[in-house]
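EI: anyone free to look at a 121-residue chain?
SC: sure, send it
EI:
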Amino acid sequence: QVQLVESGGGLVQPGGSLRLSCLASGSDGTIFSFNGMAWYRQAPGKQRELVAAVTRGGTTNYTDPVKGRFTISRDIAKNTVYLQMNSLKPEDTAVYFCNADGSSHYGKAYWGQGTQVTVSS
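SC: here you go
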């Protein structure tokens, strides 16, 4: 059984920074068990959208609105994926979800419970 637990969300001023963490709990291996991991976000009344992703091989990609401001990274030993968010804007306000593509190793994908990020003056 695998659980993804996000942390690090909160209230921040425009232009500020936050770092989100996603811990893969309960796995008996490493995050290399997943084909890739990603961060999604969902604002009220909107569809959930991909923010950033990293493949098993380390290739990253980002949605255009966050390019140059957000960075996805991982610590294999800690079974943790991070999302560093700099120069935050009010439009970044959303619930952020961690996602793991476990289709090849576990036969399913996993989602975290979400962590709220609010950017406001």
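EI: The chain has no helices and eleven strands.
SC: 👍
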